[in-house]
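Is adenosine-5'-diphosphate placement plausible here? Inputs below.
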Amino acid sequence: MTLRPLVCWCCGLMVAMLASCASPEPPLPIARRGVLDLRAVDFSRQPTVPLDGTWRWTWQALLDPAAPPGGPVEFTDFPRTWKQSRWRGAPIPSQGCATYELTVLLPPRPPDLGLRVPDVYTSLRVFVNGREVARSGTPGCRAAETDAHWAWHVGEVKNPADTLRILVQIANFAHAKGGPNRSFVLGDRTYLYRQQSTGRVLDFFLMGCLFMGGMSFLGLYLFGRHDQAILYFGLFCLCYSYRIVGVEERFLNAQLPWLSWPVTTRLEYVTLFLSVALFVRYSHALYPRDTHRFFRVITETVCYGCAALTLVTRPIFFTRLIDPFLGFMFVCILYGLYLYGVAARRNRPGAWFSLASTGLLMALFWYLNSAYFQTAGLNRIVTFGGYLGFFLLQTLVLQYRFAHRLQQARLEAEQGLRAKADFLSTMSHEIRTPLNAIIGMSHLLLADRPRPEQKEQLDVMLFSANNLLNIVNDILDFTKIEAGKISIEAIPMDLGLIARNVVMGYRSVADEKGLNLHLRLDDALPAPVLGDPTRTAQVLINLLHNAIKFTQEGSVEVSLTVGARSAQDVRVRLAVKDTGIGIPESKQKQIFDRFTQADASTSRSFGGTGLGLAICKRILEIQDVKLQVHSEVGRGSTFFFVQAFPLAPVPAEVPPAAGPRPPGTRARAGQAAGGSQHSARRRRPHERPGGAGAAPALGGRC
Ligand code: ADP
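Reply from A.M.:
I modeled the complex. Tokens:
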């Protein structure tokens, strides 16, 4: 199976992700009892150092950064949330305030330093040597004085002496968790800025991809395929695109500082709950026969319930939902793996992609949570690759499915077309046999000296039968051409003779209409050329038939003009020109489509089915020749084509023009002027018995 390499590639990425969680970091100095000794660190080789370890801290006090260190001495691990911390041996609540202090001993001549400050629960101010370098919201020791905000900063550490005194004030009265939970990082300022802008570019790029992907999936759903899987995946992409820039490093918060903390936090939670619900829905829509309804209902109830709680309760309450929900999400992803595994085993379309992408999602989830719970650092490139891989694979699932359905629809349509063509040709054959009998019998009766009123009725019958036979023949011809069942012969033929015979066959009709019918043959016309005389005559007859039909006065001219000539072939322009009603420019393309006439009133006044030109066009197309028209309303039309005919090696023996043939015979070379038994000769539908239409030239094939 060709998808296997892709699945293997994804597995490789997953392993890399999991391995990067587990891979041991090079040993770095750790803060001990409020002091971090970086004197041995070479910032040119180790550009960043996390300030992790034990910090000095004071609970329920925001110390003055300018005041000298003093007061009670207590130490705590940093970063660590308040839920897990103890103050003087006793647990503390998640709401309150605290000050953390760290003394950093620097190596001689450090580079320009910066301090990367992530978000904390939920407001902070950071001072280095008494100078503020970062701030998110307003920390205070009472709820009314505190203002929550989440953003990441890279603060400038200016003119560092050999020692830095870092003081961090943190307060929380809004969130279920309090305190710091991510590492602060000291490092080469340029390197930190570069890391920050790389992260921003990757996040906004990913967000843009997701957003545009989501919009295009929605468009696809709305404007064509009402496939629920496409709808849910589109919504999922839109929902998740917010999380890419609004969560983790929260670049959106930095871009839109006026967005209040309760709003961004609600958005963060709601998009998470909805993303899971939409993904479950999407999986169900993809593989409805493999999912358990019970699981879907439970998941949706939990997700929509949490989303509703987030919207109607205060952050201090709904933020409690996150840890249990992450556990629930883990179960959902495991279930997804199982589901896609089942779908892949049952060979559902695109299930291998789904399986690979859920595996990748699982690894990504693992990786992100390791960072969230502080068991591993976060590598932006790895998360970017993980997300990109996941969405790419899911997009492939949909595209695979889409292509699969299109292919099925095409097969069904082709089957339908074949059935229609078979039906049409069978029916036409069936109709033609009794029709030929009717026509034959009418001729016999007409020859049997009928009474005048009987003759008139027989003429009407013959006219209608001929008309019907023409239509049936056109349909048969057309379905045959459409089904690719006609082959073009290359036998010696005389183009001049074919044209002469065609014109001769229509002379009496033209005379009856009072039209001048001319034939203009180029003297340079070579006698034997290779071609299909039946089809060439059929095209000329159709064009001439139309020209006479749509011309009330003036002339009709058939001309054959020789163009370029080489040792092998000769190019001939075959044209039929009339001074008839003409065709409006806007209709000049449409008339070559099947069952299309220039004017709806045409069939009323002139009759016809709109198949003649379509047949001519297809016959010529098979020979790589284009049928063209120049026309002006009220002045006439010229239908023409230029065809290259190979020169025949020996002069062809061309028998004289064929006369009327018995029904059922088919014109071949030499009988070309008679054209195909099916449709080469067409009777004017508006002809009435006894009138011009009764002329033998038009009814010749009967
Ligand atoms: P039909 O003649 O049976 O209607 P055709 O496919 O032969 O079908 O022609 C399609 C339409 O093209 C005609 O209905 C007519 O409107 C237009 N047309 C074809 N030939 C001419 C012509 N020589 N002059 C004016 N209109 C024409």
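Short version: Residues 655-702 have pLDDT under 50 and may be disordered.
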